[in-house]
Amino acid sequence: MTNVTMAFFDQARQALHLPQEALTQFDVQGTAQLASEFPVTDFAVAAIGAAGMALAELIKVQFGHKPQVEVDRKLASLWFSWSIRPIGWQMPALWDSIAGDYKTQDGWIRLHTNAPHHKAAALKVLQCADDREAVMKEVAKWPGEALETAIVEQKGCAAVMRSLAEWQVHAQGKAVAAEPLIAWSSAEAASPYSTWQPEEKRPLAGLKVLDLTRVLAGPIATRFLAGYGAEVLRLDPPEWDEPSVIPDVTLGKRCARLDIKTSAGRATFERLLAEADVLVHGYRPDALVRLGYGEAERRIINPGLIDVSLNAYGWSGPWAGRRGFDSLLQMSSGIAHCGMQGTHSDRPVPLPVQALDHATGYLMAAAVIRALVWRVTDNRASTARLSLARVAHSLAELPRAPVAAQGLEISPDDLSLEIEKTPWGEAKRCKSPLLVGGLPLVWQRPASRLGSAEAGWVESSLG
To answer: Which of 92, 196, 253, 270 would you call most buried, defined as having the most Cβ atoms within 10 angstroms of its Cβ?
Structure first.
């Protein structure tokens, strides 16, 4: 294990309240690495390792022995990109036609337009056609911060490129730096309704996880939980889609649609929530409150609920409610600027993968599992909050030096033997990057389309 891997793993260990001995029960295999100015592969290994160590602690509580945790550097790097390898078909395009970085009057700005309403907001401000050349001409007329503000005010998503130093003195940067990596709170839990029946080989078997997350960190968290046996039910509103990532992140899950703005939808949601062990959500801080499902209301519906949430820009400060995504946080927090300087480029240089999303996702999964231990040992119903911005802060603080890509060529040995039959065609997955006591991540369901399942738990849908 490198010193950098150890540094972030120890941060995660402390945030998860795992014992000091966890540092000696974590092995790293291989020497592969992603090319970056930042230690992205070390970051990936530590985040995945933290989720594995949380699972090891749960196994110790349930079965009396604590297994060794092993992470493979090459596979961790691959899973921080795409886990799926299509056979005879291609993944949809990752970005919308006008998403990307643009030169402003005084710097650079990134527009995130994958969602139709976010695209509409940007075009409304720019007053131009849905055409990359037209957008480029209009963006060039604006000062960066003025355009960022105007798009955000229209409920769109944009981020000016700031340096690390500029973010450190920015009001939101200061607020995020003062937040914990994982913010915990808890209450005494009433005996929770649960069908969780842990098995040594499937320690999360029967755990009911209600997934209200979108691209990308939350779905990664729940994909991990499904890989060790959890029953994950993902709920999306009727109109939502994210075709560029669905084949990768719905692995192991059932995906349903539900409109909780209707009386029938609310009744179904409350029934599902009452029977869930875990709620994972990624709405902005006030979204569920406005729907009548704030934390207090959720606790009334289910006093034993493990409640884990994330947002983009942190939970305090002037931007706490701002819409955001990994690529925007890389611009805001100085990561893209650092990449530009380090490579002597004339434009922003992001990380080679969306590492903030992936690392946050594995930390969320770890938080769920750690909270499950506390529910068993202390009868506590825990709430955990994480953010992409706070994870970016941890990455920026790690020792760094530019590294070249090494050992990342994919061979048949890196892929599972099983063929996954998805709605888009056959595919293979990269092998599990993690072993916990020799147990890899194993999914019992292939990836599925949004809305392909009923909005009910397996027992309910069969009954």
So the answer is: 253
